[in-house]
């Protein structure tokens, strides 16, 4: 994939990652919605099923299915004893101060509040957060926290050691500043656990804010290459935007909520493309276009999906529609030109195959036409010769009759 194509596919992950510089382009496709570039990496009806998308609440992702709040691989240890959370020695938890008992553990879907200190392996302090609040199990934080906090008791203080795989991965992080492939130590105090708010009673402004937060978290997962987790976050955001409401909502707020929904569908399609789930990606694009028929990003991505599925004619029509909406976009031009050329080559190959299968019927037809033309000319010359002979004979007979008279 070329750099221009990467730029075209990049989503609005840029806005959710601090300190990242924008590329400065003014094109609508590169205008800070969901085609911004971040580290040269790719990045909106009903959302496609999570099992089709490769992630989400309906499917256990990575090692997260190996534990839950009631059944961990080993019984909880005493103070200063390490618990190998996943059984691979890459995520370990040690109780520093005991909590209020097993029954006080938080449940997935609850909002928890923790006090967090993050250290590098050499014990250098990276960040301290006094009241970090997140929804347990939604992927709002690094995997190490999502997996271990559900094993903590209320009031417990624990030390967590995690491999980079369950923290900030091979890319690291800009904020907090964590180098690539960094192992971390986390000091966690579980302060509070409360039920998530009822979406039907949530004021529209808060619903928009919550959906946007989940979408931005999906962008972070995308940027790290965790595409299944990104799909999960976008799906949660979509559920929020589509939830019914028992409170009044203004037309402006409805439009804003719809805008968040379309962005989620667009970004979900990008993630599904990364997972090679083309049918699911196509459903996401169709859903986005059902709400915004002239959404260029959805049209562009839909064109790419159709091309990958071998539907070149439909893909070309879709990209031409996108180009008509933004004629100056070079990325669409390039993608369309490439696709037209590929389609032409495919048609040429198919025609050659048909000729071979049918014994080169075009050549045979040409020979028949040549034979017919030759025969036609032969008949014409014979007719002309005969007509001339008759004419000459008629003149001679006239001369003989005149002489006798």
From TrEMBL:
<keyword id="KW-0677">Repeat</keyword>
<dbReference type="GO" id="GO:0016020">
    <property type="term" value="C:membrane"/>
</dbReference>
<dbReference type="GO" id="GO:0043066">
    <property type="term" value="P:negative regulation of apoptotic process"/>
</dbReference>
<keyword id="KW-1133">Transmembrane helix</keyword>
<keyword id="KW-0802">TPR repeat</keyword>
<keyword id="KW-0472">Membrane</keyword>
<feature type="region of interest" description="Disordered">
    <location>
        <begin position="1"/>
        <end position="77"/>
    </location>
</feature>
<dbReference type="InterPro" id="IPR019734">
    <property type="entry name" value="TPR_rpt"/>
</dbReference>
<feature type="domain" description="PPIase FKBP-type">
    <location>
        <begin position="109"/>
        <end position="194"/>
    </location>
</feature>
<dbReference type="InterPro" id="IPR046357">
    <property type="entry name" value="PPIase_dom_sf"/>
</dbReference>
<protein>
    <recommendedName>
        <fullName>peptidylprolyl isomerase</fullName>
        <ecNumber>5.2.1.8</ecNumber>
    </recommendedName>
</protein>
<keyword id="KW-0697">Rotamase</keyword>
<dbReference type="InterPro" id="IPR011990">
    <property type="entry name" value="TPR-like_helical_dom_sf"/>
</dbReference>
<dbReference type="GO" id="GO:0005829">
    <property type="term" value="C:cytosol"/>
</dbReference>
<feature type="compositionally biased region" description="Basic and acidic residues">
    <location>
        <begin position="59"/>
        <end position="77"/>
    </location>
</feature>
<dbReference type="GO" id="GO:0005740">
    <property type="term" value="C:mitochondrial envelope"/>
</dbReference>
<dbReference type="Pfam" id="PF00254">
    <property type="entry name" value="FKBP_C"/>
</dbReference>
<feature type="repeat" description="TPR">
    <location>
        <begin position="296"/>
        <end position="329"/>
    </location>
</feature>
<dbReference type="InterPro" id="IPR050754">
    <property type="entry name" value="FKBP4/5/8-like"/>
</dbReference>
<feature type="compositionally biased region" description="Acidic residues">
    <location>
        <begin position="31"/>
        <end position="49"/>
    </location>
</feature>
<feature type="transmembrane region" description="Helical">
    <location>
        <begin position="383"/>
        <end position="403"/>
    </location>
</feature>
<dbReference type="InterPro" id="IPR001179">
    <property type="entry name" value="PPIase_FKBP_dom"/>
</dbReference>
<dbReference type="Pfam" id="PF00515">
    <property type="entry name" value="TPR_1"/>
</dbReference>
<keyword id="KW-0812">Transmembrane</keyword>
<dbReference type="GO" id="GO:0012505">
    <property type="term" value="C:endomembrane system"/>
</dbReference>
<dbReference type="GO" id="GO:0003755">
    <property type="term" value="F:peptidyl-prolyl cis-trans isomerase activity"/>
</dbReference>
<dbReference type="GO" id="GO:0044183">
    <property type="term" value="F:protein folding chaperone"/>
</dbReference>
<keyword id="KW-0413">Isomerase</keyword>
<feature type="compositionally biased region" description="Basic and acidic residues">
    <location>
        <begin position="1"/>
        <end position="18"/>
    </location>
</feature>
